[in-house]
Design brief:
The complex is a heterodimer of chains A (483) and B (423).
Chain A lengths: L1 E6 L9 E7 L5 E8 L5 H4 L8 H4 L8 H15 L9 H33 L10 H7 L1 H22 L8 E2 L2 E2 L5 H6 L9 H21 L1 H6 L6 E6 L11 E5 L5 E7 L3 H4 E4 L8 E4 L9 E2 L2 H7 L6 H12 L11 H21 L18 E8 L2 E9 L5 E7 L1 H4 L1 H16 L7 H12 L4 H6 L7 E6 L5 E6 L2
Parallel strand pairs in A: 6-11
Antiparallel strand pairs in A: 1-15, 2-3, 4-5, 6-7, 7-8, 9-10, 12-13, 13-14, 15-16
Chain B lengths: L3 E6 L2 E6 L4 H7 L24 E4 L2 E4 L10 E3 L3 H17 L14 H9 L15 E2 L5 E4 L8 H5 L9 E4 L6 E4 L1 H4 L4 H10 L5 E3 L38 E7 L5 H7 L4 H8 E3 L14 E7 L2 E3 H13 E7 L1 H4 L12 H9 L21 E6 L9 E3 L6 H13 L14
Parallel strand pairs in B: 1-5, 11-12, 11-13, 13-15, 15-17
Antiparallel strand pairs in B: 1-2, 3-4, 3-5, 6-7, 7-10, 8-9, 14-16
Helix pairs in contact in B: 2-3
Classes of the chains: A alpha+beta (483), B alpha/beta (423).
Chain lengths: 483, 423
């Protein structure tokens, strides 16, 4: 028998996708595929354009984390201007960091409160009418207000530095085009117009505690659901601490052995390759030296929690210690712990934002630096969903001749396929018929990775699913929709 | 002092200096006549764009080339003239490849500004998507022919210190483009080069190193309209009757989900909205199929593939009102940058020639479970009838909800100038 579960819509960056799980005549999983069914062609159509347009142009890849694309492209474009990250002015660096941490804060808040919380609050078998944030708002108004306000805070940070909440502009080649005024800074500190940063830290701590309580009650589920060994990739600073804006690339295998030893980001193409499958427009990156089969890595909050030595803010570091204590400091390969890791990062972001808001360099006027132009620029950043790579090559006149993008969700392609296979093997293949709860479990597994395609399809709940049951002769014998 | 004479504009009498340009005379009397090619110190005026078309003494003609005289009678704001001028601006958007979200002149662009002033929210003409040159040969500037509206301002106004022209028209008709004398261009002073960028009403002349120098809010056309009465409509501050709960569907086609994010940017007002609307088929809920007819469908994104087309048609079938939300659904948006390039080239670049492709092991995905790619990206109105357009990348949250409330309950509203944007 075959079952085909469709997740729609998904795109390479956002948009349309489809999961198909095929079972043989004995009801065992034969194949499962997570198809990404859209393609945009940014790598080609950006060619021929001036490189300085890239940070504004490519951020349209994504409406949920445009800041990450804006800044990854900006880091690459800085290099084309001959400016390395360390050579940016202190003010430019701080403003960009503030924007980036505001972005991750809002994106993680969006994911947890708008996307994931219905599953955790109501359970995977909840009726379809309840699996959305509207039901969360109706049943737990206070939680909904906190979630909405936290997302708003991050969006307001972005607007303060970039002029717009979505697709704003801050970075220009070699720096930034505006600074922050005292009035704009105080907006986030004095609590007169919006909840201030101290409240954000307090609420972030509270939501981490909520997750720890949930963990106490649901540990078996969190430990086992869609758990599988994999590598983990992320960025660290010179001391090995978590750095979401800049640093070196580090990867570990499922046992914690180093597979990529803090390499400079501009060397990424020497270490990574991308496989292509016939059935998906999304590629499959992997570490060349480990090989296609085992060289793929998870990226994002869980990966970052696993591979960093510490988090450089005190409250989040204490939470990381608690987090790793549950696995006896071994690598955590349980998909559902992504949510916990994400909430620790929310706390970390709030702490960093507070530090930055109190840093006088934030309001300086030294905004743009110049260097000796180069022909290649590679910008890598830790986006909310993981390691994001922008690579541009230009001719001597500044025209883009080549572009390579590896978006975070691409790194998680194998992981999401493995998670889907886990649900197929452990949930679906053990049953004679498809239930709505089973379909939702496929989505729960994918949702933990907060893929960009997930953002596009399930902003407030889950992805719509369509399941078809075929017999071994390929004839459709049952069909079910998730509603 | 020049002699003052009497003229009539839209049936009202005004006084103006005899011989004064009609554009200026009207402006001094508080009358807004849209224009693009008109540039005050270019004399005689160019009269190339025709956006200032009025009825002058009973005949259609450009206001910018007219000098006022005693008894002149001008019609400016008749429905026919307003629609004609709007159509002219729409044609310019359709003829070039104007993608405001990707343009560094955005916010300082006269064409974009005229679109705002005339309320151009979509175009009635099919976009041409011609493959146009971006010329990197000039030493000081980049000539972006996708954005040129052939107004002739640069041809007439940009010269070297010794009076040599830098730009000239080449070819004829639809093949006309502005050619550059590279030798003279290299002789421009910094100030002259910057002036060339300023003279250009769009982003066709870009000086290297001058990019996005002004933040949002500080750009020339960000906040204030040229018209005193821009989109002035009565605003109801109080709801008089209980509002009937409405059913809303939303979808993201070939968009980036930014429009859905903007929907959420009303923040805690969302809690009020869900008292008034229920979400049916939408990424906001788990409903996959339409289980009920919807009052309104909000569409984000254009159509890249066969699935997009099928979904859009399904929405048209099940929704009373269909709203195209954001640049991608209204004009095709940034994804249309691939429309001038063969699809095969885009696929080859991504899968066969990528820096990180597997050597000797590359394929272009093709599978029965992947929908068919379309030859190009289509705006929604090229596939189905669209009832209302909200441009922007993404549209302002207030703009979206004001429009939706108006469409659902007939609530009167005013979209502020600062809320109506293309980028």
């Amino acid at each position: 028998m075959n079952r085909k579960i469709t997740i729609d819509p998904v795109t390479r960056v956002e948009g349309h996708g489809r999961v198909t799980i095929h079972l043989d005549e004995y009801g065992q999983v034969k194949d499962s595929f997570f198809h990404i069914v859209e393609f945009r062609g940014f790598e080609r159509f950006i060619q021929g354009h001036p490189y300085w347009e890239a940070p504004v142009l490519v951020q349209r890849l994504c409406g949920i984390c445009p800041v990450s694309h804006h800044l990854a492209a900006a880091k690459a474009v800085d290099q084309l201007e001959g400016v390395d990250p360390k050579d940016l002015s202190p003010t430019a660096t701080r403003l960009r960091r503030l924007m980036h941490f505001g972005q991750i804060f809002q994106s993680h808040a969006l994911h947890f409160f708008y996307l994931a919380s219905p599953d955790l609050l109501f359970g995977m078998d909840a009726p379809v009418e309840k699996r959305n944030v509207i039901a969360v708002a109706v049943e737990n108004r206070e939680l909904a207000i906190k979630g909405i306000t936290m997302r708003k805070f991050g969006q307001e940070i972005i607007k303060a530095v970039a002029g717009k909440k979505i697709h704003g502009i801050l970075a220009v080649p070699g720096g930034v085009h505006k600074t922050l005024t005292e009035e704009e800074r105080d907006y986030f500190l004095n609590g007169k117009s919006i909840e201030n940063i101290d409240t954000m830290i307090e609420w972030s701590q509270a939501i981490v505690n909520f997750m720890k309580d949930y963990h106490e009650k649901n540990r078996k589920f969190l430990d086992e659901f869609a758990a599988f060994p994999s590598g983990h990739l992320g960025m660290v600073n010179d001391e090995g601490g978590l750095d979401l804006y800049d640093g070196k690339l580090r990867a570990i295998d499922s046992e914690g052995n180093i597979t990529l030893d803090d390499i400079a980001t501009d060397l990424y193409q020497e270490y990574f390759s991308e496989a292509v499958a016939q059935w998906s427009y999304m590629k499959f990156p992997y570490l060349k030296k480990v090989g296609r089969e085992n060289g793929w890595n998870r990226v994002g909050p869980l990966a970052r929690m696993n591979m960093c030595d510490f988090i450089p803010t005190p409250l989040a570091e204490k939470e990381r210690q608690d987090f790793i204590a549950f696995t006896g400091k071994k690598v955590n390969n349980s998909t559902m712990y992504s949510h916990w890791a994400r909430l620790i990062e929310i706390l970390h972001c709030a702490e960093v934002i507070k530090e930055l808001l109190h840093d006088p360099e934030l309001m300086g006027n030294d905004l743009i630096r110049k260097g000796t132009p180069r022909l290649k620029g590679i910008g890598i950043i830790e986006a909310p969903r993981g390691t994001l790579t922008h690579h541009y090559e230009v001719d001597e006149k500044g025209m883009i001749t080549r572009c390579n993008l590896i978006v975070s969700t691409t790194h998680n392609n194998d992981a999401m396929n493995t998670a889907v296979r886990w649900v197929a093997n452990n949930v679906i293949s053990r049953s004679g018929n498809i239930t709505d709860g089973m379909l939702n479990q496929v989505e729960v597994a994918i949702r933990a990775y907060d893929p960009c395609l997930s953002c596009a399809t399930q902003a407030m709940g889950k992805m719509p699913l369509h399941a078809e049951l075929y017999n071994h002769l390929g004839k459709l014998i049952d069909e079910k929709y998730s509603n | 002092m020049s002699k003052m004479i009497n003229i009539t504009i839209d049936g009202k009498s005004f006084q103006a200096e005899e011989g004064k340009n009609l554009m200026l005379a009207a402006k001094e009397n508080g009358i807004f006549i849209p224009s693009l090619c008109y540039y005050e110190h270019i004399e005689p005026p160019l009269g190339t764009c025709r956006v200032c078309t009025c009825k002058i003494n009973g005949k259609f003609g450009p206001a910018c080339t007219e000098k006022v005289s005693e008894g002149l009678s001008v019609a400016v704001n008749t429905p026919e003239l307003m629609d004609t001028r709007k159509a002219l601006v729409e044609m310019m958007f359709a003829e070039g490849n104007h993608i405001c979200p990707a343009c560094e002149k955005s916010g300082n662009c006269d064409l974009q500004h005229m679109g705002y002033e005339l309320g151009v929210s979509s175009t009635r003409f099919q976009h041409l998507f011609k493959d146009r040159l971006i010329d990197f040969k000039p030493s000081r500037m980049v000539m972006e022919h996708n954005r040129c509206i052939k107004c002739m301002r640069c041809v007439v106004d940009v010269t070297t210190t010794d009076g040599k022209k830098v730009f000239t028209y080449q070819n004829r008709g639809n093949e006309t483009f502005v050619g550059i004398d590279y030798e003279q261009e290299a002789r421009l002073t910094d100030e002259q080069a910057l002036n060339a960028m300023k003279v250009c009403p769009t982003g066709a002349i870009i000086i290297r190193g001058v990019n996005q120098s002004e933040p949002f809010g500080d750009r020339k056309f960000d906040l204030e309209s040229t018209q005193k009465d821009y989109n002035k409509k009565p605003v109801l501050t109080k709801r008089l009757v209980a509002m009937e709960k409405k059913m809303v569907a939303t979808v993201s086609l070939a968009g980036c989900f930014g429009c859905h994010m903007s929907l959420l940017d009303i923040d805690t007002e969302l809690l009020d909205v869900i008292e008034l609307v229920s979400f049916a088929k939408s990424p906001l809920t788990d409903f996959k199929n339409f289980t009920t007819r919807c009052h309104i469908g909000l569409i984000e994104g254009g159509c890249c593939n066969s699935d997009n087309v099928e979904t859009l048609r399904l929405f048209r079938e099940h929704c009373d009102i269909l709203v195209a939300l954001g640049e991608c659904s209204v004009w095709g948006g940034l994804p249309t940058m691939r429309n001038a390039i063969p699809l095969g080239e885009c696929l080859e670049e991504a899968y066969l020639n990528s820096v990180t492709s597997e050597a000797g092991n590359t394929i272009v995905p093709y599978h029965e479970d992947l929908p068919k790619m379309l030859d190009r990206v289509y705006a929604c109105n090229e596939i189905v009838k669209i009832d209302y357009y909200i441009p922007g990348c993404p549209p302002d949250a207030n703009h979206i909800w004001k429009a939706v409330k108006n469409l659902l309950w007939g609530e009167e509203y005013s979209i502020l100038y600062s809320e109506f944007k293309y980028d």
